[in-house]
Amino acid sequence: MAAEFTDHHNPHEKPPDAEEMARIPKDMPGLTETEAARLLHLNGPNELPEAKVNPFLHFLSFYWGPMPIMIWIAVLLEGAQENWLDFGVLLALQFLNGIVSWNEERNAGNAVAALKKQLASRAIVKRDGQWKTVPARDLVVSDVIALKLGFVVPADAKLLGGESVEIDQAALTGESLPVTQFPGGVVYQGSVVKRGEISAVVTGTGKDTFFGKTSTLVSSVQSQGNIQKVVWYITLFLLIFSLVLVIIIFFYLFTRPDEAIETHKPKWLSSLAICVVLLVASIPIATPVVVTSTMAVGAHKLTGHRVIISRLSAIEELAGMNMLCSDKTGTLTKNELTLYDPFLLPGVTASELALTAALCSKREAEGQDAIDTCITRAAAADNMNLEQYEELHFVPFDPMRRRTEATVKGPDGQLIQAAKGAPQVILAMSKNVEEIKDVVQKAVKDFASRGYRTLGVAKTDADGNWIMMGLLSLFDPPRDDTADTLKKAFALGIRVKMITGDQTAIAKETARALGMNDCILNAEALTDKNIDEKQRSEIVDRADGFAEVFPEQKFQIVEMLQKRGYRCGMTGDGVND
User: Fold this and answer.
1) Which residues form the catalytic set?
2) Average pLDDT over all residues of the chain
3) Does the pTM of the predicted model rise above 0.70?
4) Partner of 308 at 20 to 30 A CA spacing, among 80, 110, 170, 199?
């Protein structure tokens, strides 16, 4: 079974010290097939739980509700009077409405099920002391798994000893850059390994994973669609109004002095027959069919735009939405780092800075991290011919050293040493550190206040001394059509709030770039114990967005807005949305 070791480190903490690292095992024997089978039987497979619904009962549910019940009453009344033509028409309308609704929901369910294929389907696990590939659903807690470049993490796991790895968890947390995880750290199901290889021990599967808890949180919501409420209120009003009028008419007919029209029937029965006809006529029998058919047409049109409709009523709810909570990374933005205006030290040009940064970047597309990809793409766009620079030695990014280095031979045969990395690290390497320290630190702070990430760039002089050249600024830019989409939403009276797991400064800069208001608050406002629920609800209403939030806090924000009377929607490209 798995041994206990040091608690994980979040990506913003320092790597474990030597003593702590020594307590983290580099390898473990893993489980036996017998132990794994027992745990699998005990805890279930590593997949999201799905409520089992009897398909027949689910089909019948489309014939139960305010309007279907009214139509059933009308069907029974027509049958009691032996009006078989009307009886058949009403029955056909009832079945048509139920079948259309069932079919549309079934198609949507098939589309949603296909999305689950995004999760890892296979995993490399150590069983009986041997590495083997198994379906990800067969993983159990305490299994030892291998994580390699490009792998989708198949379950929540704690890293064993070894080198650090970079994990892209934007789809889970909203962070736009991969995070560095050290031995002892935790990685989450659904995230992607962007750099490095390491073994890990599974700590959570299925519903007990970060992904699973988020899914359970969302599936716990059981709410009636707005269209059902509207139809119910209309039906209830018409029913009460019709009953009052029919009762009045019945007593009028029953007490009138002249004889009933149908003299062969008792007077009360003749009066009741007339009232039944009036009551059936007053029931809006075609309403469900018209509503369902209209939304079905809308669903098919939206399908042409690659929109998945999980419920037909969602179309009407979206049309009536007046508040939209949107994720940032990958939704409002491209989730693709881009170089912005650099900070240049005297005597350095922007092209020289960009070329030096490109020379100490990993050139092969396979295995590039987000930063190297951004820099090499920019170099290609500026027609920099990196192939004329022969790479003699390359030192990849190391979280301990916090920089990359390269030694290259230029077209003229001259050796060039280049480095890029954390600004404070590059600054400390520089020969002229005391001369440029203040101005570089000020530039770093200015970029940080605007949400830009910065990289220091340096190269050696003729004497082999490192000379800092300047700073590269990186930012995840908005999508090309986002600003226009937001303008259309504002024109339709829809308020838009940015809800992101990324840093507050980055969220504010993105809001400004999109023309949104930048009153973006930290998620601490949602957990401050000095604020009561009423104040917290007002803060959520007034704020233009929240940053550094967790999935459960997104749920909390939407819930508060709904309680304040908003028709609130949530959009995003990640599990946490």
Assistant:
1) 327
2) 81
3) no
4) 170
